[in-house]
Design goal:
This protein is 64% helix and 11% strand. By secondary structure, it is an alpha+beta fold.
Length: 354
């Protein structure tokens, strides 16, 4: 038992070191892109360091599964090279018990990913977006915004044609209590914010008179979304918790393009932690194959290359599934969960065949 605890501590240490290296590599490419954007917008380059700190949760969230793969694979290959795995097998250690430290490492990483995605990533992404708008792109939050925006809020789903300060034009509202079936929406040509709710105005932006729907005044007055709520055309899925993503999916009509992106983002919230749970078993199969094919061969260099190739293949499949889901080629659940299922099936089939 003490030996398994020692293996678990060693695995977590290697996973932590791998995570640091991967986060630094991710941040390096991220900073290069931010420097380009700052120079293009004549913004102070010093902002790049603020963006580096704000993007750390994103880097941790995306790199943690691959750190688990590299860490587990490195420890397993080291055990095979030194004969430690053979000693454990000779001591009648069952395979499932030998994998317990690595499985627990994956479980800790999965729980950490869920915590980061729910409590650290959303506020960080929101702050990053605001910093990019105000200090880099020099766009004021209350500046006039044109272009149709779909936004889901507590009152329902809004379609806003234009916003000018505290006024909205060409507005449709699907009330939250009437979302089922998406019946007839409330419609207003011109709304103004009075500090506590919205009210219809008899004149549109162009000054022409409009007919008011008096029966809808009470509903507009209870709509509590302030003007700033409509700043973002589509908030990114990374900037929302899982609960808010579910609200968007429940309220948004199926024809809105962003709905597929939100469903994909919600699916990735489950598939990435699931990869953390599966990667220790994938590492075990890769380590066994390498130990059988190359007994004591390339050592650590071969281990790094093996982990790098496996990680790049999985990363490419995840990106491909995400793009296919967002483009509507695949259902979001299929696009996001297909990679964990493929990893699980490969591990299962490879174990039975060998």
């Amino acid at each position: 038992m003490m030996h398994l605890l020692h293996i678990g501590r060693r695995t977590m240490r290697i996973v932590f070191l791998s995570l640091i290296g991967l986060v630094l590599l991710f941040s390096l490419f991220d900073m290069i892109e931010h420097v380009r954007v700052c120079l293009a917008n004549a913004a102070p380059v010093i902002i790049v360091f603020d963006l580096f700190l704000l993007r750390l949760p994103t880097a941790l969230y995306q790199m943690l599964p691959f750190a688990v793969l590299f860490g587990c694979l490195a420890v397993m290959m080291e055990m095979a090279r030194t004969g430690e795995a053979l000693v454990l097998h000779a001591a009648a250690q069952k395979e499932c018990r030998g994998l317990l430290p690595f499985a627990l490492t994956g479980l800790v990483a999965a729980v950490g990913m869920i915590a980061i995605g729910e409590w650290w990533l959303p506020p960080s992404e929101n702050t990053t977006r605001l910093l990019m708008q105000t200090d880099v792109q020099h766009v004021e939050p209350n500046e006039n915004l044109s272009g149709v925006r779909w936004v889901a809020g507590p009152s329902g789903v809004w379609r806003v044609g234009e916003r000018r300060g505290d006024e909205l034009s060409n507005v449709l509202l699907y009330p939250a209590e009437a979302v089922d079936g998406w019946g007839d929406p409330l419609e207003a040509e011109h709304l103004a914010w009075n500090g506590e709710g919205w009210s219809q105005l008899p004149e549109a932006v162009d000054g022409s008179a409009r007919k008011l729907d008096i029966s809808a005044d009470a509903i507009w007055a209870k709509a509590l979304e302030p003007p700033e709520f409509f700043d973002a055309r589509y908030p990114t899925s990374e900037s929302m918790t899982a609960g808010r993503l579910l609200d968007y999916l429940a309220w948004m009509p199926a024809q809105i393009p962003a709905r597929a992106a939100y469903a994909t983002g919600l699916g990735l919230r489950g598939s990435l932690p699931l990869l953390c749970l599966l990667f220790p078993f994938l590492a075990a199969r890769l380590a066994w194959r390498r130990a059988m094919l190359v007994r004591g061969g390339m050592g650590r260099v071969g281990t790094v290359m093996l982990g790098l190739v496996a990680g790049l293949v999985v990363f490419a499949l995840v990106a491909l599934g995400k793009a296919a889901a967002e483009a509507g080629i695949l259902f979001p659940a299929v696009g996001t969960l297909s990679v964990p299922m493929l990893v699980f099936l490969w591990v299962l089939v490879d174990r039975r065949r060998n």
